[in-house]
Amino acid sequence: MAKHITVEAPEGGYEITIERGLLAHMNDCPKANLSGRTVIVTNPTIQPLYGESLARLLPDATIALMKDGEQYKTLNTVGKLYGELVAAGLDRSGTVLALGGGVVGDTAGFAAATYMRGVRLVQVPTSLLAMVDASVGGKVGVDLPQGKNLVGAFKQPDAVCIDPDVLQTLPEREWNCGLAEAIKHGLLADTVLLGMCARSHEVDIEEFLARAIQVKVDIVERDPYEKGERAFLNLGHTFAHAIEQVSEYRWLHGEAVAVGLVAATRLSYALGLCDESLLNDVEKLLEQVGLPTRIGKLDPKTLYGAMSTDKKWRGGHPRFVLLRGVGKPLIVEDVRRAEVLTVLKELKS
Ligand SMILES: NC(=O)c1ccc[n+]([C@@H]2O[C@H](COP(=O)([O-])OP(=O)(O)OC[C@H]3O[C@@H](n4cnc5c(N)ncnc54)[C@H](O)[C@@H]3O)[C@@H](O)[C@H]2O)c1
Ligand SMILES: [Zn+2]
Predict the structure, then answer these.
(1) Could you tell me if 43 and 67 are in contact, meaning their C-beta atoms sit under 8 angstroms apart?
(2) Which DSSP symbol is given to 330?
(3) I need a labelling partner for 231 at 20 to 30 A (CA). Which of 55, 264, 331, 342 fits?
Protein backbone atom coordinates (compact mmCIF):
# COMPACT_ATOMS: atom_id res chain seq x y z
CA MET A 1 0.00 0.00 0.00
CA ALA A 2 1.18 3.53 -0.75
CA LYS A 3 3.06 5.26 2.06
CA HIS A 4 3.19 8.94 2.90
CA ILE A 5 5.85 10.50 5.12
CA THR A 6 5.56 14.13 6.17
CA VAL A 7 8.85 15.93 6.74
CA GLU A 8 9.02 19.03 8.94
CA ALA A 9 11.66 21.51 7.78
CA PRO A 10 12.50 25.10 8.82
CA GLU A 11 11.83 26.45 5.31
CA GLY A 12 8.55 24.57 5.04
CA GLY A 13 7.64 20.91 5.24
CA TYR A 14 6.99 18.51 2.39
CA GLU A 15 5.63 15.06 1.77
CA ILE A 16 7.35 11.94 0.52
CA THR A 17 5.02 9.63 -1.40
CA ILE A 18 6.06 6.02 -1.96
CA GLU A 19 3.73 4.26 -4.35
CA ARG A 20 4.17 1.55 -6.95
CA GLY A 21 3.06 2.86 -10.34
CA LEU A 22 3.16 6.51 -9.20
CA LEU A 23 5.10 7.64 -12.28
CA ALA A 24 2.13 6.79 -14.52
CA HIS A 25 -0.11 9.33 -12.80
CA MET A 26 2.27 12.09 -11.74
CA ASN A 27 -0.04 14.55 -13.54
CA ASP A 28 -2.66 14.15 -10.81
CA CYS A 29 -0.29 13.95 -7.83
CA PRO A 30 -1.52 16.91 -5.71
CA LYS A 31 1.67 17.19 -3.66
CA ALA A 32 3.92 17.44 -6.72
CA ASN A 33 1.53 19.91 -8.41
CA LEU A 34 2.98 19.68 -11.90
CA SER A 35 0.23 21.56 -13.74
CA GLY A 36 2.48 24.55 -14.52
CA ARG A 37 5.66 24.79 -16.57
CA THR A 38 8.02 21.98 -15.60
CA VAL A 39 11.55 21.13 -16.68
CA ILE A 40 12.43 17.48 -16.16
CA VAL A 41 16.18 17.18 -15.55
CA THR A 42 17.40 13.67 -16.28
CA ASN A 43 20.17 11.78 -18.09
CA PRO A 44 20.38 9.69 -21.30
CA THR A 45 20.03 6.43 -19.31
CA ILE A 46 16.80 7.43 -17.58
CA GLN A 47 15.29 9.50 -20.38
CA PRO A 48 14.16 6.61 -22.62
CA LEU A 49 13.13 4.48 -19.63
CA TYR A 50 11.00 7.01 -17.75
CA GLY A 51 11.66 10.58 -18.89
CA GLU A 52 9.84 10.64 -22.21
CA SER A 53 6.62 9.05 -20.94
CA LEU A 54 6.61 11.41 -17.96
CA ALA A 55 7.07 14.46 -20.22
CA ARG A 56 4.14 13.31 -22.40
CA LEU A 57 1.94 12.88 -19.33
CA LEU A 58 2.47 16.38 -17.92
CA PRO A 59 0.61 19.32 -19.48
CA ASP A 60 3.59 21.69 -19.89
CA ALA A 61 6.89 19.84 -19.53
CA THR A 62 10.20 19.75 -21.39
CA ILE A 63 13.31 17.65 -20.80
CA ALA A 64 16.80 18.98 -20.00
CA LEU A 65 19.54 16.36 -20.23
CA MET A 66 22.77 16.16 -18.27
CA LYS A 67 25.39 13.48 -18.84
CA ASP A 68 25.34 10.33 -16.71
CA GLY A 69 28.03 9.99 -14.05
CA GLU A 70 29.49 11.56 -10.92
CA GLN A 71 32.11 13.33 -13.09
CA TYR A 72 29.30 15.50 -14.48
CA LYS A 73 28.07 16.65 -11.06
CA THR A 74 29.80 19.99 -11.68
CA LEU A 75 29.25 23.73 -11.91
CA ASN A 76 29.77 23.39 -15.65
CA THR A 77 26.71 21.12 -15.86
CA VAL A 78 24.74 23.51 -13.63
CA GLY A 79 25.68 26.34 -16.01
CA LYS A 80 24.33 24.37 -18.97
CA LEU A 81 21.14 23.57 -17.04
CA TYR A 82 20.54 27.27 -16.33
CA GLY A 83 20.66 27.81 -20.10
CA GLU A 84 18.05 25.08 -20.60
CA LEU A 85 15.80 26.56 -17.92
CA VAL A 86 15.93 29.97 -19.59
CA ALA A 87 15.29 28.41 -23.02
CA ALA A 88 12.28 26.57 -21.60
CA GLY A 89 10.89 29.88 -20.35
CA LEU A 90 10.90 28.74 -16.73
CA ASP A 91 9.96 31.61 -14.42
CA ARG A 92 9.75 31.77 -10.63
CA SER A 93 6.45 29.90 -10.64
CA GLY A 94 7.93 26.97 -12.58
CA THR A 95 9.18 23.62 -11.34
CA VAL A 96 12.40 21.68 -11.75
CA LEU A 97 11.73 17.95 -11.56
CA ALA A 98 14.84 15.88 -10.87
CA LEU A 99 14.38 12.41 -12.37
CA GLY A 100 17.33 10.11 -11.71
CA GLY A 101 19.84 8.90 -9.15
CA GLY A 102 21.60 11.05 -6.58
CA VAL A 103 23.79 12.72 -9.18
CA VAL A 104 20.79 14.13 -11.04
CA GLY A 105 19.04 14.96 -7.76
CA ASP A 106 22.00 16.88 -6.31
CA THR A 107 22.82 18.75 -9.54
CA ALA A 108 19.28 19.60 -10.62
CA GLY A 109 18.49 20.44 -6.99
CA PHE A 110 21.37 22.92 -6.87
CA ALA A 111 20.19 24.49 -10.14
CA ALA A 112 16.67 24.78 -8.68
CA ALA A 113 18.03 26.33 -5.47
CA THR A 114 19.88 29.07 -7.33
CA TYR A 115 18.06 29.74 -10.62
CA MET A 116 16.11 32.99 -10.11
CA ARG A 117 17.01 32.66 -6.38
CA GLY A 118 15.06 29.43 -6.21
CA VAL A 119 12.22 27.71 -8.02
CA ARG A 120 10.05 24.74 -7.04
CA LEU A 121 11.84 21.40 -6.84
CA VAL A 122 10.25 17.97 -7.09
CA GLN A 123 12.57 15.04 -6.48
CA VAL A 124 11.75 11.82 -8.33
CA PRO A 125 14.61 9.53 -7.29
CA THR A 126 15.15 6.41 -9.41
CA SER A 127 18.06 4.64 -7.66
CA LEU A 128 17.71 2.89 -4.31
CA LEU A 129 20.44 5.14 -2.88
CA ALA A 130 18.66 8.30 -4.01
CA MET A 131 15.34 7.02 -2.62
CA VAL A 132 16.60 6.17 0.86
CA ASP A 133 19.24 8.86 1.19
CA ALA A 134 20.02 11.58 -1.39
CA SER A 135 16.49 12.84 -2.14
CA VAL A 136 15.65 13.36 1.52
CA GLY A 137 16.97 16.11 3.80
CA GLY A 138 17.41 19.09 1.51
CA LYS A 139 21.12 18.94 0.74
CA VAL A 140 21.90 19.73 -2.89
CA GLY A 141 25.21 20.52 -4.53
CA VAL A 142 28.03 19.67 -6.88
CA ASP A 143 31.66 18.58 -6.79
CA LEU A 144 34.76 20.69 -7.42
CA PRO A 145 38.01 19.30 -8.90
CA GLN A 146 39.38 19.62 -5.34
CA GLY A 147 36.75 17.39 -3.76
CA LYS A 148 33.24 16.00 -3.65
CA ASN A 149 30.22 18.07 -2.61
CA LEU A 150 32.29 21.19 -1.95
CA VAL A 151 29.62 23.57 -3.32
CA GLY A 152 26.02 23.32 -2.25
CA ALA A 153 22.94 24.62 -0.54
CA PHE A 154 20.07 23.54 1.64
CA LYS A 155 17.02 23.40 -0.60
CA GLN A 156 13.98 21.54 0.65
CA PRO A 157 12.04 19.87 -2.15
CA ASP A 158 8.36 20.72 -2.56
CA ALA A 159 7.65 17.01 -2.87
CA VAL A 160 9.49 13.71 -3.16
CA CYS A 161 7.74 11.16 -5.37
CA ILE A 162 9.01 7.59 -5.28
CA ASP A 163 7.82 4.89 -7.65
CA PRO A 164 9.56 1.66 -6.52
CA ASP A 165 8.71 -0.03 -9.84
CA VAL A 166 11.56 1.88 -11.52
CA LEU A 167 14.01 -0.16 -9.45
CA GLN A 168 13.36 -3.09 -11.79
CA THR A 169 15.81 -1.57 -14.28
CA LEU A 170 18.44 -0.57 -11.70
CA PRO A 171 21.68 -2.59 -12.14
CA GLU A 172 22.34 -5.04 -9.28
CA ARG A 173 25.60 -3.30 -8.29
CA GLU A 174 23.70 -0.02 -7.84
CA TRP A 175 20.96 -1.78 -5.88
CA ASN A 176 23.59 -3.09 -3.47
CA CYS A 177 24.98 0.41 -3.02
CA GLY A 178 21.58 1.64 -1.91
CA LEU A 179 21.31 -1.33 0.39
CA ALA A 180 24.55 -0.31 2.12
CA GLU A 181 22.97 3.05 3.05
CA ALA A 182 19.76 1.32 4.18
CA ILE A 183 21.87 -0.97 6.40
CA LYS A 184 23.57 2.15 7.78
CA HIS A 185 20.13 3.54 8.67
CA GLY A 186 19.21 0.22 10.29
CA LEU A 187 22.36 0.29 12.41
CA LEU A 188 21.66 3.88 13.46
CA ALA A 189 18.08 3.32 14.57
CA ASP A 190 16.05 0.31 13.47
CA THR A 191 16.62 -3.41 14.05
CA VAL A 192 13.52 -4.38 12.05
CA LEU A 193 14.94 -2.50 9.05
CA LEU A 194 18.15 -4.55 9.35
CA GLY A 195 16.08 -7.72 9.06
CA MET A 196 14.36 -6.33 5.99
CA CYS A 197 17.72 -5.48 4.40
CA ALA A 198 18.73 -9.12 4.77
CA ARG A 199 15.67 -10.19 2.73
CA SER A 200 15.26 -7.07 0.62
CA HIS A 201 14.09 -8.91 -2.51
CA GLU A 202 11.29 -10.63 -0.60
CA VAL A 203 9.87 -7.86 1.57
CA ASP A 204 7.15 -5.36 0.69
CA ILE A 205 9.16 -2.73 -1.17
CA GLU A 206 6.99 0.23 -0.14
CA GLU A 207 7.25 -0.78 3.52
CA PHE A 208 11.00 -1.32 3.22
CA LEU A 209 11.61 2.07 1.60
CA ALA A 210 9.38 3.84 4.11
CA ARG A 211 11.31 2.38 7.06
CA ALA A 212 14.70 3.18 5.54
CA ILE A 213 13.64 6.75 4.74
CA GLN A 214 12.04 7.33 8.13
CA VAL A 215 15.39 6.94 9.91
CA LYS A 216 16.89 9.80 7.89
CA VAL A 217 13.72 11.91 8.22
CA ASP A 218 13.80 11.61 12.02
CA ILE A 219 17.42 12.70 12.16
CA VAL A 220 17.18 15.63 9.71
CA GLU A 221 14.02 16.91 11.39
CA ARG A 222 15.87 17.12 14.70
CA ASP A 223 19.00 18.62 13.12
CA PRO A 224 18.23 20.15 9.71
CA TYR A 225 21.52 22.04 9.29
CA GLU A 226 23.96 19.41 10.61
CA LYS A 227 24.85 21.14 13.84
CA GLY A 228 24.83 17.90 15.81
CA GLU A 229 23.28 14.49 15.42
CA ARG A 230 22.91 14.68 11.62
CA ALA A 231 26.59 13.78 11.65
CA PHE A 232 25.53 10.27 12.70
CA LEU A 233 24.47 9.75 9.08
CA ASN A 234 28.20 9.72 8.33
CA LEU A 235 28.55 6.33 10.02
CA GLY A 236 31.20 4.42 8.04
CA HIS A 237 31.77 7.39 5.75
CA THR A 238 35.18 8.55 6.98
CA PHE A 239 36.53 5.16 5.94
CA ALA A 240 34.34 5.10 2.82
CA HIS A 241 35.55 8.42 1.44
CA ALA A 242 39.17 7.32 1.90
CA ILE A 243 38.47 4.03 0.08
CA GLU A 244 36.78 5.84 -2.81
CA GLN A 245 39.63 8.33 -3.10
CA VAL A 246 42.49 5.83 -2.82
CA SER A 247 40.83 3.41 -5.27
CA GLU A 248 40.41 6.36 -7.66
CA TYR A 249 36.65 5.79 -7.55
CA ARG A 250 36.81 2.21 -8.86
CA TRP A 251 34.90 1.34 -5.70
CA LEU A 252 31.34 2.66 -5.81
CA HIS A 253 30.24 4.79 -2.87
CA GLY A 254 27.91 2.15 -1.39
CA GLU A 255 30.57 -0.55 -1.64
CA ALA A 256 33.00 1.69 0.22
CA VAL A 257 30.28 2.44 2.80
CA ALA A 258 29.85 -1.31 3.38
CA VAL A 259 33.52 -1.73 4.30
CA GLY A 260 33.30 1.54 6.23
CA LEU A 261 30.50 0.08 8.35
CA VAL A 262 32.66 -2.96 9.12
CA ALA A 263 35.60 -0.70 9.99
CA ALA A 264 33.48 1.55 12.23
CA THR A 265 32.07 -1.46 14.07
CA ARG A 266 35.51 -3.02 14.47
CA LEU A 267 36.87 0.26 15.81
CA SER A 268 33.92 0.48 18.21
CA TYR A 269 34.74 -3.01 19.44
CA ALA A 270 38.47 -2.27 19.72
CA LEU A 271 37.67 0.76 21.89
CA GLY A 272 35.45 -1.35 24.14
CA LEU A 273 32.24 0.39 23.06
CA CYS A 274 30.29 -2.59 21.71
CA ASP A 275 30.08 -6.39 21.92
CA GLU A 276 31.78 -8.70 19.48
CA SER A 277 28.33 -9.94 18.43
CA LEU A 278 27.59 -6.59 16.74
CA LEU A 279 30.74 -6.96 14.67
CA ASN A 280 29.80 -10.48 13.60
CA ASP A 281 26.21 -9.48 12.79
CA VAL A 282 27.28 -6.54 10.62
CA GLU A 283 29.81 -8.57 8.64
CA LYS A 284 27.40 -11.47 8.18
CA LEU A 285 24.61 -9.22 6.92
CA LEU A 286 26.85 -7.38 4.43
CA GLU A 287 28.29 -10.67 3.14
CA GLN A 288 24.83 -12.16 2.82
CA VAL A 289 23.61 -9.33 0.57
CA GLY A 290 26.77 -9.43 -1.55
CA LEU A 291 28.54 -6.30 -0.32
CA PRO A 292 32.31 -6.19 0.32
CA THR A 293 33.65 -6.37 3.88
CA ARG A 294 37.41 -6.18 3.25
CA ILE A 295 39.69 -3.52 1.76
CA GLY A 296 41.39 -5.96 -0.65
CA LYS A 297 44.56 -4.56 -2.21
CA LEU A 298 44.24 -1.10 -0.67
CA ASP A 299 47.03 -0.08 1.68
CA PRO A 300 46.07 0.76 5.31
CA LYS A 301 48.59 3.59 5.68
CA THR A 302 47.54 5.23 2.41
CA LEU A 303 43.92 4.97 3.53
CA TYR A 304 44.75 6.59 6.86
CA GLY A 305 46.52 9.41 5.02
CA ALA A 306 43.41 10.01 2.89
CA MET A 307 41.17 9.95 5.97
CA SER A 308 43.11 12.70 7.68
CA THR A 309 42.25 15.09 4.82
CA ASP A 310 38.50 14.41 5.26
CA LYS A 311 36.63 17.73 5.49
CA LYS A 312 34.71 16.34 8.47
CA TRP A 313 37.98 16.00 10.44
CA ARG A 314 38.13 19.55 11.71
CA GLY A 315 41.75 20.69 11.55
CA GLY A 316 43.01 17.14 11.03
CA HIS A 317 41.40 16.11 14.31
CA PRO A 318 40.30 12.43 14.09
CA ARG A 319 36.54 12.19 14.41
CA PHE A 320 34.52 8.99 14.00
CA VAL A 321 30.89 8.02 14.25
CA LEU A 322 30.93 4.77 16.21
CA LEU A 323 28.34 2.43 17.75
CA ARG A 324 27.62 1.19 21.25
CA GLY A 325 25.05 -1.08 19.62
CA VAL A 326 22.22 -0.93 17.10
CA GLY A 327 20.47 2.40 17.59
CA LYS A 328 23.24 3.77 19.80
CA PRO A 329 25.60 5.90 17.68
CA LEU A 330 28.09 8.33 19.20
CA ILE A 331 30.87 10.61 18.02
CA VAL A 332 34.37 9.85 19.25
CA GLU A 333 37.23 12.29 18.84
CA ASP A 334 40.96 11.76 19.15
CA VAL A 335 41.08 8.06 18.32
CA ARG A 336 44.74 7.07 18.19
CA ARG A 337 46.25 6.50 14.76
CA ALA A 338 47.56 3.10 15.87
CA GLU A 339 44.03 1.91 16.76
CA VAL A 340 42.70 2.89 13.36
CA LEU A 341 45.63 1.30 11.56
CA THR A 342 45.13 -1.96 13.45
CA VAL A 343 41.51 -2.08 12.31
CA LEU A 344 42.50 -1.35 8.70
CA LYS A 345 45.16 -4.08 8.80
CA GLU A 346 42.57 -6.57 10.09
CA LEU A 347 40.48 -5.69 7.05
CA LYS A 348 43.21 -6.89 4.68
CA SER A 349 42.49 -10.54 5.36
N1 LIG B 1 22.13 15.12 -1.07
C2 LIG B 1 22.36 14.14 -0.21
O3 LIG B 1 21.97 14.21 0.95
C4 LIG B 1 23.07 12.93 -0.69
C5 LIG B 1 23.11 11.78 0.11
C6 LIG B 1 23.73 10.65 -0.40
C7 LIG B 1 24.34 10.67 -1.65
N8 LIG B 1 24.29 11.81 -2.40
C9 LIG B 1 24.91 11.86 -3.73
O10 LIG B 1 24.24 10.92 -4.57
C11 LIG B 1 25.14 10.53 -5.60
C12 LIG B 1 25.06 9.04 -5.76
O13 LIG B 1 23.75 8.69 -6.14
P14 LIG B 1 23.44 7.32 -6.90
O15 LIG B 1 24.06 6.20 -6.16
O16 LIG B 1 22.00 7.30 -7.18
O17 LIG B 1 24.33 7.44 -8.24
P18 LIG B 1 23.92 7.89 -9.72
O19 LIG B 1 23.01 9.02 -9.71
O20 LIG B 1 25.20 8.01 -10.47
O21 LIG B 1 23.13 6.62 -10.26
C22 LIG B 1 23.81 5.39 -10.44
C23 LIG B 1 23.62 4.86 -11.87
O24 LIG B 1 22.35 4.23 -11.95
C25 LIG B 1 21.61 4.77 -13.03
N26 LIG B 1 20.20 4.66 -12.66
C27 LIG B 1 19.55 5.34 -11.69
N28 LIG B 1 18.29 4.90 -11.58
C29 LIG B 1 18.13 3.93 -12.50
C30 LIG B 1 17.05 3.08 -12.87
N31 LIG B 1 15.87 3.14 -12.23
N32 LIG B 1 17.22 2.22 -13.88
C33 LIG B 1 18.43 2.13 -14.51
N34 LIG B 1 19.50 2.86 -14.20
C35 LIG B 1 19.35 3.76 -13.20
C36 LIG B 1 22.13 6.18 -13.18
O37 LIG B 1 21.85 6.71 -14.46
C38 LIG B 1 23.62 5.93 -12.93
O39 LIG B 1 24.24 5.44 -14.09
C40 LIG B 1 26.51 11.03 -5.19
O41 LIG B 1 26.86 12.13 -5.98
C42 LIG B 1 26.34 11.45 -3.75
O43 LIG B 1 27.20 12.50 -3.37
C44 LIG B 1 23.68 12.93 -1.94
ZN1 LIG C 1 26.66 7.73 1.68
Answers:
(1) yes
(2) E
(3) 342
In testing the pocket of ligand 1, which one of 7, 162, 174, 226 has its CB within 8 Å of the most ligand atoms? 174
Output DSSP code: residue 48: I
Closest Cα to residue 257, out of 275, 281, 233, 288? 233
Q: Is 338 exposed, middle or buried (0-12, 13-18, 19+ CB in 10 A)?
A: exposed
Integer Cα distance of 284 and 290 in angstroms: 10
Q: Which residues line ligand 1 (CB under 6 A)?
A: 43, 45-46, 49, 68, 70, 73, 100-104, 106, 126-127, 129-130, 133-134, 137, 139, 149, 166-167, 169-170, 174, 177, 253
Contact 233, 216 (CB under 8 A): yes
Kindly give the distance from the C-alpha atom of residue 89 to the centroid of ligand 2, in angstroms, as a whole number: 35
Which ligand has the minimum distance to the alpha carbon of residue 129?
1
Q: Are strands 95-100 and 120-125 parallel, antiparallel or unpaired?
A: parallel
In ligand 1, the atom with minimum distance to the C-alpha of 106 is: 1
Q: What's the CA gap between 165 and 22, in Å, rounded?
A: 9
Q: What is the pLDDT along the chain (349 residues), one digit of tens a residue?
A: 899 999 999 988 999 999 999 999 999 998 999 999 999 999 999 999 999 999 999 999 999 999 999 999 999 999 999 999 999 999 999 999 999 999 999 999 999 999 999 999 999 999 999 999 999 999 999 999 988 899 999 999 999 999 999 999 999 999 999 999 999 999 999 999 999 999 999 999 999 999 999 999 999 999 999 899 999 999 999 999 999 999 999 999 999 999 999 999 999 999 999 999 999 999 999 999 999 999 999 999 999 999 887 766 766 678 899 999 999 999 999 899 999 999 999 999 7
Q: What would the DSSP string read from start to end of 88-148?
A: TT--TT-EEEEEESHHHHHHHHHHHHHGGG--EEEEEE-SHHIIIIITSSSEEEEEETTEE
Distance in angstroms (rounded) separating the CA atoms of residues 267 and 340: 7
Residue nearest (by alpha carbon) to ligand 1 atom 16: 101
